[in-house]
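Hello again, I could really use a second opinion on something today. I've dropped the whole record in just underneath, so have a look.
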Amino acid sequence: PGSYPLSTTHKESLASEVVPQFVSWSDDGAITHNITVASSPLTITGTFTTQFQLTTAAGAGGTVTPATGTFYDSGTVVNVTASPNSGFVFANWTGPNLQSSSSTTTITVPATSSTYTANYNTQYLLTVNVTPIFGGDVGIGPPGSDGYHNSGTTVSLLASVSSGHGFVGYSGAITSTNSNVQLLMNGPKTV
């Protein structure tokens, strides 16, 4: 008989990506509290849940939030965001049960060690100058985002002339007298 401290550690590592998380004592006491033991046996049970580390990774060209290191109960839905660096664009997410092309999505934390990766594409700037300025226009297909195109994309250039002008040719990244040409975006290009 008497009063005794009852305590447990909050987290102990089972593996680098798995931890038990204290939930409660059967007597509703705090994680550390005193218990009074009478002359009869006393049973108090601790309840724990297993939490899993959410492992996120960013391919070359960006970052991911939240960063790896937070533990969650299996089944918890976590918002994740991929942020591309300058010169890159978000491509997609890869990981178990996650195939998303949206840079912001949710992951349902599985009861196993898993990695979720944000993938990025390199982009290059295509600059097109027309001389004289009012001499015509160059159509670009597919259109890029603010002049940027994914690495490896083949871009079509189609020159059209204004009334009273003629097409002479392209110079710079491509040299041609044909008004309809293809240009491989494997680096920044100026035409």
Observations:
- The first strand starts at residue 2 and ends at 7.
- The CA atoms of residues 95 and 139 lie 38 Å apart.
- The radius of gyration is 30 Å.
